[in-house]
């Protein structure tokens, strides 16, 4: 089957040829005809299966065929697409723009972390596609900056992630702001009782589509687990992995934002080009970090699950689970960042004893066997690794001449380390502390 079988209008067919799409993926083959028919859809499909095109292409076709609205303020968009994260919303917006390259389609995204003033300005024009995160959209609806009463289609992408992040109450309020007779498409990685219950509230007699997840057993991804004794041994194995010759770019996943910051700082001290990506960063910082990663200015991205959703970089060779995820589905999403475009990739998990049950659960769910390799390191090796790496880093910093050799106690953090009172400060950063200041305790 080819895309020509769907009967898309010429501008869409031209765009498909331009981006070298040839054969539809299973989710596209099953979903596109149903969306074109106007029916509601409940589809189970993972990231990386082509689901974005499965709803974007037919909806673009439907919107282009309908009569155009005159430009007026506060008009409803034709299509509303809800996304759990800013990054995923941005990715969907970019895909829509690629598919509508030869069309006069107005695509706007409204997400947190971006100026309200700018978004309000964009919403004053006739919007065809509005891609939004639930929180920011709710704010704009409350401010009466946007009217949802006349939308023709509503897409709820990654419904399971929406559930995990607590967005379902917001989505219900958004749904109540619509006419409630529009076409509704819901996509989810997992189909459980909770998702079924949510679907019953929004969908009317939906066509159910389930696609076997190809990336569960992606043959291009070598999956390895290293059993480790503790946190320190995790870092030792991580150092070895990052020194592998075939590593081009890597994403390291941590359980918390704090852990991501700490680990990224430690890698930076070892002269790695690393940067964090998590929800506490501003939208501007996150966008800049992702762009730098795409341009290979950053080699290692230390990220949390939510922040990394929507990252689409073909050159990622390694995905490293510094902490195993709490949900099996998140493991599938994580490793899906590598092994793309027929390239080879590695998914490496550093597993402490209490995480072994999760590893077994992942193997069962994904129907795979993860290779287990024992580490030869002991935790006592860690100090040697860090001492060697940090000494080189400190020498490099000192050679700049920015601080005199006898100035080592002039910063409050360093005086604390050496046992001095925190509130005693030198009169000048260029002069050492007076000799009569006595330490509270001997340095350990």
UniProtKB/TrEMBL annotation:
Source organism superkingdom: Bacteria
Record motif Q motif, residues: 1-29
Keyword Transport: no
Domain Helicase ATP-binding intervals: 32-209
Biased composition (Basic residues): 394-406, 427-437
Record's signal peptide: none
Region (Disordered): 392-444
Keyword Ribosomal protein set for record: no
Pfam family, one: Helicase_C
Sequence ranges assigned to domain DEAD-box RNA helicase Q in this UniProt record: 1-29
Domain Helicase C-terminal, chain residue ranges per copy: 237-381
A single GO cellular-component term on record: cytosol
GO molecular function, one term: RNA helicase activity
InterPro entries xref list: DEAD/DEAH_box_helicase_dom, DEAD/DEAH_RhlB, DEAD_box_RNA_helicase, Helicase_ATP-bd, Helicase_C-like, P-loop_NTPase, RNA-helicase_DEAD-box_CS, RNA_helicase_DEAD_Q_motif
Keywords for this protein: ATP-binding, Helicase, Hydrolase, Nucleotide-binding
Family to which the UniProt record says this protein belongs: Belongs to the DEAD box helicase family.
The name this protein goes by in its record: Dead/deah box helicase domain protein
Phylogenetic placement of the source organism: Bacteria, Pseudomonadati, Pseudomonadota, Betaproteobacteria, Nitrosomonadales
